[in-house]
Amino acid sequence: MTTTVGIEKDLREALGRLLAERCDHEHVAALADGPQEWDRDLWAELAAMGLPGLVVPPEHGGEGMGFALAAAAQEELGRRLAPVPAMSTTAVQAALLASGDSAEAARWLPRLTSGEVTAAVAAGRTVDGWAMADDVRATRAPGGWRLSGRVPVVADAAAAGLLLVAAGADGDPALFLVDATVKGVRIDRLDALDPTRPLAGVRMDGVPAGRLAGHEEFTEVFQAAERAALVLLAADAVGVAAQAMDMAVEYAGTRRQFGRAIGSFQAISHRCADMLVAVESSRALVAAAAASLDDPSEDTAVAVDLAAAHALETAVRVTGGCVQVHGGMGFTWEHPAHRYLRRAKAAESLVALPDRLRDRAAAALVARLDHDNEDN
Amino acid sequence: MATVPAVPAEDAEPSSGGAPRPPEWRVRLREFLAAHAGRPPQDKAERLAWARGFHADLEEAGLAAPGWPVEAGGMGLELADQLAYHQEMTRARAPKHPCGLSFIVAPTLIMHGTPEQRERFLRPLLRADELWCQGFSEPGAGSDLTALSTRAVRVQDSDGDHYLVTGQKVWTTMADQADWMFALVRTGSPGPGGAGISYLLIPMDAEGVTVRPLRDISGGAHFAEVFFDGVRVPAANLVGEENKGWAIARTSLGHERATAFLSDEFRYRRIVDELLSLAARTGAAADPVVRQSLARIEASVRVLASNSRRALDLVLQGSDPGPAASVNRLVKSEFEQELHEVALRVLGPDAVLGNRERTAPERGRWTYGYLMSRASTIGAGTAEIQRNTIAEKVLGLPSHRGETRS
Questions:
Q1: Where in chain A is the domain with CATH 1.20.140.10?
Q2: Which chain B residue lies closest to A301 (C-alpha atoms)?
Q3: Which of A188, A328, B165, B326 is the most exposed place for a label (fewest CB within 10 A)?
């Protein structure tokens, strides 16, 4: 226990130092508003620290530290709006690990873990979470499969060397791995609400694909990816909210109106107090959800859904509050407040909406209760 | 009952395969609980006597006060064991100690009391032989507690060294049953930081003490007003130094809050399971709006569990409970209200029945809880004062009084 706490503290501090130096507001703004889509150099430095391999076991070149640590790291990345594809890459790693496909795992995990390749999930998107991409068809070909069609919105696709594609094969859902660098894959950049997590449309024209999961394993493997994505997205949201709160508190303590610091007015200070309560609560739920991914139980799905719902919503509320506390300053392009609001708001609808996650969690809890009652 | 693992580390049941055997105290506690199993009597007075008997036996068996140091009559258990202890007690539906307030004064006595005071008070307190009430709030001192004006004047005469106490306390829970009151009284001039306030232990059977019950929002009388008219209190009943009582009350409150969550945690878990059950039974859970509320309540009960463990961990390491404790106080206050808000929504049309109506679902417990939980954002610091505390003490924002006045 103490060692885990110690490792987490060290990791947060090391990451905090690196990001303070390499990923300040000016850097993020320049990158987000410029032609470059993500921070390749930062990713390389994070890879040198072992970050992309935190959830990957040592036999595939990873650190084997689990989601508890990966979530802590993601929170630090969120704090600095780091434009790196950690969430998407981890989701694909989770799918590779859940599939039990040792050949594909051996082929991709070491490269994902070393930071050489990043990955993205190309799936259909619904309010309830990821689904099959409707417009992609998989056909059998000599020596494997070929994919054709388009996925309209894919996060982190521009950076990706590997795509996890959810598509129909012979009428059944399946998961495929596509080398994004091959001929026939086209990535078209989209204008994103949150430019620190770039979006693109993906077109595939008869590209070779390896099948990671057929329809028997589809749900389990896809769920593993979605849960990993939700937990990291939620952890990221905690970092986004925590930093937005710090900015709001800092400003409230220095900005003076009516002859006093505005943070001495309870309308402001109580808003800030509510931010702290929400951030601390989210952090607690995300830590529990991450622990539950590392040590799965019948409660894992509920823990993940509740944590994601809470953290995603909290980040939107806190970043909105941060803009409000900053008044006119918060409405300017120059001030970083809007970048936090953008990252929070986009994250809310990136994988699944908070209210849908809550609905799913409550339904599962009640169903479990019915089940328990029948047992008695 | 739902098997929602609010506590991830389930206790170690003795099993094959070399699982660790439960520690000696746990074996004895289980035996004790098995031997004391039984249903609480219906009658209120009998129920109190039953709970007192249980806790006297518990103390006798050396199984009371898991977190207190052994020297103070406790068990000196580690955090994980304390959690396990409360789990055992909740699972066995053991009667709660009849006087929760005892556990606010007790840490104060352990930390700041004289050896004589510890010797005199702690054991009867644990056994529930003596019950305690808290005399802090006054008609003119609510959120601004340091404005209290109940006076204690020191006199030395042929009867010895005494205080003469005159004034009034209000919102005093259990005043009619308590043997003792731990009170904050004014012994010196008011000043910043609660100057001039002393912490005094007042016998409730002393001459000049009058208790007048106060009817509350639910229609019951859960607290009272207490009047003091020249009540003589031995100077030996002063805790800590004269005029330094404010700091003593504050530190012990902080620590008490942290540990109090521990036992609340399991109780809340059970109540939320009961609410989920109610929603499933009545069919209200089929309503997506109700499901949103249920999920929010479920998230809150998990936050409370996880934060209380964090806070307690810090307390046991000898540090301040930190933001987690302040956060939990506020979450808990509002959680109790939201929980009952949702419960009445789940009851639907039946929510019109009063808490004394015998045909009301579950004998009116949710309506009663709804009314009583209004106190959770008022008592022991209003939600507004708690937000001030978080803003100023945790976030470091400037005082709400403004810089010019302070």
A1: 219-375
A2: B4
A3: A328
Sequential DSSP letters for B28-43: HHHHHHHHT--PPPSS
Average pLDDT over residues B253-278: 77
CATH architecture of A2-114: Orthogonal Bundle (1.10)
Confidence of residue A3 (pLDDT cuts 50, 70, 90): low
ipTM > 0.90, yes or no: yes
What class does CATH assign to A119-215?
mainly beta
Reading the block at residue A180, the tokens are: 């994004």
Q: How many residues does chain A have?
A: 376
Q: What angle do CA B237, B243, B248 make, to 5 degrees?
A: 70
Neighbours of A138 (CB within 10 A): 23
Interchain CB distance below 8 Å, A284 and B277: no
Question: A62 and A55 in contact (C-beta within 8 Å)?
Answer: yes
Q: Which residues contact B217 (CB under 8 A, 6 or more apart)?
A: B371, B372, B374, B375
The H or E element that residue B302 is part of is helix B288-316
Q: Where in chain A is the domain with CATH 2.40.110.10?
A: 119-215
Residue intervals in chain A for CATH 1.10.540.10: 2-114
The DSSP symbol for A182 reads S
Is the pLDDT reported for residue A35 higher than 50? yes
Chain A residues 323-362 with a CB less than 8 Å from chain B: 355, 358-359, 361-362
Query: Residue A242: its chain B contacts at CB < 8 A?
Result: none
Of the candidates B276, B303, B323, the beta carbon closest to that of A365 is on B276
Q: Could you report the per-residue pLDDT of A20-33, keeping only the tens digit for each?
A: 999 999 999 999 88
Minimal CA separation from A109 to chain B, in Å: 30
The CATH number assigned to the domain with range B248-394 reads: 1.20.140.10
CB neighbours of B241 closer than 8 A, spacing ≥ 6?
Answer: none
Pick from A175-184, B112-121, B266-275, B307-316: least confident? B307-316
Q: Is B328 exposed, middle or buried (0-12, 13-18, 19+ CB in 10 A)?
A: buried
CA distance B237 to B113: 9
Q: How confident is the model at residue B260 (pLDDT cuts 50, 70, 90)?
A: low
- Share of chain B residues as helix, strand and coil, in percent rounded to the nearest 5: 50, 15, 35
* Residues B219, B217: Cα–Cα separation, whole Å: 6
Q: Which CATH class is domain A219-375?
A: mainly alpha
Interface test with A, best of B303, B308, B327, B335 (most A CBs within 10 A): B303
Residue B316 is predicted with a pLDDT of 64
**Token match 């945790």: residue?**
B394
> Are B403 and A260 an interchain contact pair (Cβ–Cβ within 8 Å)?
yes
In whole angstroms, give the CA distance from residue A303 to residue A55.
18
CATH number of B132-242: 2.40.110.10
Contact A197, A64 (CB under 8 A): no
A359 C-beta neighbours (distance < 10 Å), count: 21
Q: How confident is the model at residue B16, as a pLDDT?
A: 45
Judge whether B330 is closer than 8 Å to chain A, CB to CB. yes
List the domain boundaries for chain B. Answer: 26-105, 132-242, 248-394
Residue B46: CB atoms within 10 A of its CB come to: 11
Instruction: Give the CA distances from residue A222 to residues A92, A99, B317, in Å, rounded to whole numbers and listed in that order.
Output: 9, 9, 42
The β-bridge relationship of strands A172-179 and A199-213 is: antiparallel
Range in A170-174, A193-197, B250-254 with the lowest mean pLDDT:
B250-254
Mean pLDDT of B31-38: 93
pLDDT surpasses 90 at A143 = no
